Amino acid sequence: MSNTIASDVMTNISEATVSDYFSLLKPKVMSLVIFTGFAGMWVAPGMAQTHPFLLAVAMLCLAINAGAAGAINMWYDRDIDAVMKRTQGRPLPLGRMHPSEALAFGIVLSIFSVMVMGLALNWVAAGLLAAANLFYIFIYTMWLKRLTPQNIVIGGAAGAFPPMIGWAAVTDDITLYPFIMFLIVFMWTPPHFWALSLFANEDYKRAGIPMLSVTAGARKTKIQMLIYTLVLVPLTISPAFLGLASIQYGLIAAVLGALFLIAALRVLSSDDLKHAKIMFGYSIFYLFALFLAIMIG
Amino acid sequence: MKPLHQTEVHKKKLKKNLAILAMILGFCALIWTITMIRIAGG
Question: What is the ipTM of this complex?
């Protein structure tokens, strides 16, 4: 009898370790969020007058909030994560954690990060943080992802918030420059994700996610990637023309953009998936390098 | 049969509770520090 009770208790106790909880936060995505958020903060006027501890708190809130949205995304998408090779190793598909634990973890961290951002910095930044979180969970994850090939085009807005949040954390306001940074990440997201979807197409097909490469085919996806890249490149150079960044920044953005354009053209002109993989890898480097140039310039 | 405090179940629960305790203490320290900085005009 006591053995039965003990085994029943065991099945209700989570097998999850600290690293499982950490992987729920999607650390790779978090690093990009932290970096672009920090860039927004760095170029904001008045950063030097803000207490360094509060700036660190703002970065912590940004990171935790992005991670929390990722945890809720993993809770909602646990069915499709289980059939996709890329995501099968996550804690929920592996059964290492009860779904309700992941959901509770995500909700608690979301509320915590927004409240602390509001108390430590200001409520404009906290409001933007909450908007990014809710957009990612409700608009992208629950609504668009399984509905339309435009899922990552509109849903990409969620990932574009961090530079605006970083800026608002310092200035308590939003102006043209943080909005341009928002647009840069927004326009960068489709070619980045569509490059991934080209070589992970079978995975998306199996999971029934209507990525553009699944619904419209590789050729149309590659054309769309090129179109978004053609819009993105002048957009990244625009801060130099508008007097918001230096000419040196403009030159760096032009060179990085030309390489991104070449990568998109190579993807379009070849059926070899290695070019899509190269473009996907380069797109990550591109965004890091571009925001580094924004910080320097 | 092992006493309750030596079972795997208890060990796992203890680890989890200690982690939650550390997080609550960390949260209190964070809020206290933010308050002190804001009061000082930071």
Answer: 0.77
- Sole residue written with tokens 């209190």: B28
Please report residues of B whose CB lies closer than 8 A to that of A112.
27
Query: Rounded to whole angstroms, how far apart are CA atoms A138 and A212?
Result: 21
Q: Nearest Cβ partner of A13 from B12, B30, B37?
A: B12
CA distance A166 to A152: 23
B8 in A contact zone (CB under 8 Å): yes
Terminal Cα-to-Cα distance of chain B (whole angstroms): 58
**A128 with A161: CB under 8 angstroms?**
yes
Q: Which residues of A touch B16 (CB under 8 A)?
A: 14
User: Please, what sign has the CA dihedral across residues A217, A218, A220, A225?
Assistant: positive
CB contact under 8 A, A119 and B16: no
Whole-number Å distance between alpha carbons of A66 and A58:
12
Amino acid at A291: F
Amino acid (one-letter) located at A42: W
Digit-coded pLDDT (tens) for A142-188 = 999 999 999 999 988 999 999 999 999 999 999 999 999 999 999 99
CA dist A178 and A166 (Å) reads 9
Interchain CB distance below 8 Å, B31 and A119: yes
Cβ contact, residue pair B42, A50, below 8 Å: yes
For residue B34, the distance in angstroms to the closest alpha carbon of chain A comes to 6
Task: Please name the residue ranges forming H helices in A121-150.
Answer: 123-134
* Cα dist from A281 to A63, A100, A148, A277, A290, whole Å: 22, 34, 25, 6, 14
